[in-house]
Amino acid sequence: MKKERTIGTEVARRRAAEEQLRESYAAVQRAHDDLKASQTTLIESEKMASLGLLSAGVAHEINNPVGYILSNISTLADYLPKIAETYNELKGIVEQIDETHPLYKAREAIEAKIVERDIDYLLDDTKDLVSETREGANRVLDIVRGLKNFAHADDNTLEYADINNCLESTLSLVKNELKYHCAIETKFGEVPYVNCSVSKLGQVFMNILVNASYAISGNGRIFITTNTEDNNVVIELEDNGSGMSEATLKQIFQPFYTTKPKGEGTGLGLAISYGIVEDHGGTIEATSTLGEGTKFSIRLPIDGPSRGSDDQLSTDN
Hints:
Layout: H1 2-95, H2 104-116, H3 119-151, E1 159-161, H4 163-178, E2 182-188, E3 194-196, H5 198-215, E4 220-229, E5 232-239, H6 246-249, H7 269-279, E6 283-289, E7 293-301
Parallel strand pairs: 2-4
Antiparallel strand pairs: 1-3, 4-5, 5-7, 6-7
Helix pairs in contact: 1-3, 3-4, 3-5, 4-5, 5-7
């Protein structure tokens, strides 16, 4: 009987030891996973920092020549009416020369050259070209502003800013990614300025828009709205892409979770976005129907995370 009790005690001790060993192994595994996650995040942060420096340099280099172009285009736009007015005056004078005038043959030659070189058309078309060139140069400036915002994505300084402008700036930066298969519709309300980090919120909007583009096959639509509810600005970004199952939807804000093929996504974009919005004292939620699309709803308190008392975000994320 005593022997049986001894054996039972030994078995219990072994089981306890095995259980302790399993717990220790699980703790080591968790520590390993946390270290691996931190390492990956650090690598991504270094990549983003390097890309930010590159973006800042590119933005600076582009900004100067575009400034020259816009300045010259503005001057040319001022010249054109005077050229057109002078041309029309001279054309009127030439038309007054009748067949009895000694310069009538010169009139015929001048009118022939006008027709041959299609001067009337060239003057009209030049106005359109100037207008389109100015529009294109301003579009480049929008991209430059977007690059500058991206370059300062690690800036935690808060400022009161127009969320609608922030969305427009982000759209300018990702427009090339979207324009071939996504129609962008916006309905911006008259919203108050929000105490925020413009660059960090731009990163949130960019992540969502790029994900929406990835979810849309063929021709799709992205609908963006802003409005005010209580003391919050509400931003909604909705697409009619492939949507997500309930199981997927529950995991999208988890670090390193991605539905993209291996090598095409880190799974950090939405997790970082969640942290940024949370740092602003706001909330971000997603609803989705498989095969129909996804909608992200972001609520940001107007006075920011500190209700206006601090001027910087947390740097923990």
